[in-house]
Write a structure and sequence with these properties.
The protein is α+β, with helices and mostly antiparallel strands and 347 residues long. The protein has three domains: 1-40, no CATH class; 66-221, Thiol Ester Dehydrase, Chain A (Roll), CATH 3.10.129; 224-347, Thiol Ester Dehydrase, Chain A (Roll). The protein contains five helices and 16 strands. Strands 5, 6, 7, 8, 9, 10, 11, 12, 13, 14, 15 and 16 form a twelve-stranded antiparallel beta sheet that branches. A two-stranded antiparallel ribbon has the order 1-2. Strands 3-4 form a two-stranded antiparallel ribbon. A hairpin with a 5-residue loop joins β1 and β2 (18-19). The longest helix has 18 residues, at 96-113. It starts with 10 loop residues before the first strand and ends in a 5-residue tail after the last strand. It is found in: Plastid, Chloroplast. Residues 237-339 form the Acyl-ACP thioesterase-like C-terminal domain. This is Acyl-[acyl-carrier-protein] hydrolase. InterPro entries: Acyl-ACP_TE_C, Acyl-ACP_thioesterase_NHD, FATA/B, HotDog_dom_sf.
Length: 347
């Protein structure tokens, strides 16, 4: 065995083959090389300290849970929310789905705070007796600026009567420090019998529960009276087929949550718009409920494009239709309009 105790001068390999003396080639002795020269040299390199960019604005950290409070003589519900990392997109701005989820939560928290929430999505005690639930009829949203990851946003919510059979919910996102208004939204809710799945009138008993908390103000977002033209299916610009609800898309009223519809209409928005524009406003009308076994089709028409050139315009309008794949004009689930502004405008 040599000085390193690694190789015998005359030996056989563990495969049973004869191995020649490594210091001889064709029985001729050659110069001996130390194995230390063949082994790699291991160096210990001190890691460089990680440098933190002190100029980069980090998200604000908040503690505690804001359950909301009543202001304006008990007629306006106010709650602060913290924008989480999983609620933003690649540009660190909140998605419209996040905005709608927070608005929906504020509607329910308001009813809970005033003590009339009993069951389901906002059902009052009298609604439960009559087996009634709320469903969304119309939603209008105007976005001036999307909150960013780490922002703390104040949401104000108040309610009013809407005609004879509806309730209007007004909501406003703003910066709690500067009072800058970020987002305004108005929605109209109507009642549906959860067994017959038919719309219901506004019972007097339910009116008596809610009227003391109504703030008699007009819609925060001006009512869009635009007529919905009959869509020519042969000229629609973009179509996305085979959209189906998942089990997690159902809410406690056993139909697809209205927020999910927004994601479906965006499925057919062209990628060029999604990459170069951000949503400025939308008006949505809900025509019928979507159940767990529905198969849907999303259609988007881009209005007034100059020679098909989308990317060079400051603003773009789109018309949307969400419908059952089988059902034609009788299968409309939701229709709406969206306005988009170029990200180059710096909002």
């Amino acid at each position: 065995m040599n000085v390193h105790g690694l190789i015998k001068a005359t030996s056989s390999s563990f495969w049973g083959l004869h191995v020649k003396d490594p210091t001889k080639v064709n029985a001729t002795k050659v110069g001996y090389t130390s194995w230390n020269m063949c082994l790699p040299t291991i160096r210990t390199i001190a890691p460089k300290p990680m440098m933190i960019n002190q100029k980069k604005k980090l998200p604000k950290m908040v503690s505690g849970l804001d359950l909301g409070r009543m202001v304006n003589d008990g007629l306006v519900f106010r709650q602060n929310v913290y924008i989480r990392s999983y609620e933003v997109g690649p540009d660190q701005k909140t998605s419209i789905d996040t905005i709608m989820n927070h608005l929906q939560e504020s509607i329910l928290n308001h009813l809970k705070k005033i003590g009339v929430l009993q069951d389901g999505f906002g059902s009052t005690p009298e609604m439960c007796k009559k087996k009634l639930i709320w469903v969304m009829a119309k939603m209008q949203v105007v976005v001036d600026r999307f909150p960013m990851w780490g922002d703390v946003v104040q949401i104000d919510a108040w309610k009013a009567a809407s005609g004879k059979n509806g309730m209007c919910c007004n909501m406003m996102f703003c910066d709690p420090e500067t009072r800058e208004i970020l987002i305004k939204a108005s929605s109209i809710l109507v009642m549906m019998n959860k067994e017959t799945r038919k719309l219901s009138k506004f019972p007097y008993e339910v009116q008596a529960e809610l009227e003391p908390y109504f703030l008699n103000t007009p819609l925060l977002v001006k009512q869009d009276t635009k007529k919905w033209p009959k869509q020519d299916h042969s000229t629609v610009d973009y179509v996305s087929n085979g959209l189906t609800p998942r089990w997690s898309d159902l809410d406690i009223n056993q139909h697809v949550n209205n927020v999910k519809y927004i994601g479906w209409i965006l499925e057919s928005v062209p990628e060029t718009i999604m990459e170069n524009y951000e949503l400025a406003s939308m008006t949505l009308e809900y025509c019928r409920e979507c159940r767990k076994n529905s198969v849907l089709q999303s259609r988007t028409s881009v209005i007034e494009i100059d020679n098909g050139n989308i990317a060079n315009r400051d603003h773009i309008d789109c018309q949307h239709l969400l419908q059952l794949e089988i059902g034609g004009d009788n299968g409309e689930i939701m229709k709406g309009w969206t306005k988009w502004r170029s990200k180059k405008l710096g909002h």
